[in-house]
Write a structure and sequence with these properties.
VC0802-like, CBS-domain, 2 domains, three-stranded mixed sheet, alpha+beta, four-stranded antiparallel sheet, 33% helix, 9 strands
Length: 221
């Protein structure tokens, strides 16, 4: 999934002549802490509410603090994983998408990013989850797939996290079935440490759906 597939069509850009107060109002409307500043189709930089509060220029145009704009953006072909990394690294609630010569194309907001991550990991698809732990030297994607498929199941998504100051990996596996007993036993037979399991039930689906809708409502989608 690429940047141009995730751009918002409702979040506006700011003009250099906009006042800081107007900028804060737009941020408040869309529940964002960052908005792009654009002049005649050219991206000038990313403005944060923190910069406005720090400079205290509320009634004046934001062009007066243009030296404080952050020059962070992605191209329309940037992959979602790289976008996640940039947003995490700089604590962004939105990230601009630009073309050649800094042409402003649009913006990706955090809520849209979360929505697309959910699609990538198949969070909306029914099934169980197993979290296993293994030494880095024993990690084998083909073996994990063999264990799962040998029990008549399929891997819908999987991600691996390195444990801090450790040679062990934590592996989260989303499956197309909630019947996990035989799969767990096979993992244990191959000496994987089972750290957690989640067998999806109808009541849990409703709880997750309710919490997700509450989050989306808060983010003003």
């Amino acid at each position: 999934m690429l940047a141009h597939e995730m751009m918002s069509d409702v979040v506006p850009s700011l003009k250099p002549s906009d006042s800081a107060n107007r900028s804060l109002n737009w941020m408040n409307v869309f529940k964002l802490s960052h908005l792009p500043v654009v002049n005649e189709g050219v991206f000038l930089g990313l403005l944060s509410d923190e910069i406005i509060y720090d400079t205290g220029i509320y009634e004046e145009p934001i062009e007066k603090i243009s030296d404080r704009f952050t020059n962070i953006s992605v191209s329309k072909y940037t992959h979602v994983f790289e976008i996640i990394d940039i947003c995490s690294k700089y604590s962004l609630t939105a990230i601009p998408v630009v073309g050649d010569d800094n042409e402003y194309l649009g913006i990706i907001v955090l809520s849209k990013l979360i929505e697309n991550i959910s699609k990538i990991i198949n969070a909306h698809v029914s099934g169980g989850i197993i979290v296993v732990e293994v030494h880095v030297n024993d990690y084998s994607l083909s073996q994990i797939a063999q264990i799962v498929e040998g029990n008549d199941a399929k891997i819908l998504s999987m991600y691996v996290v390195s444990q801090p100051d450790s040679m062990r990996l934590s592996i989260t596996i989303k499956l197309n079935t909630s019947e996990l007993t035989s799969i767990i036993r096979t993992f244990e037979r191959y000496e994987y440490d089972i750290k957690a399991t989640f067998e999806e039930k109808d009541t849990m689906k409703e709880i997750i759906k309710e919490r997700y809708n509450s989050l989306m409502s808060y983010l003003n989608i």
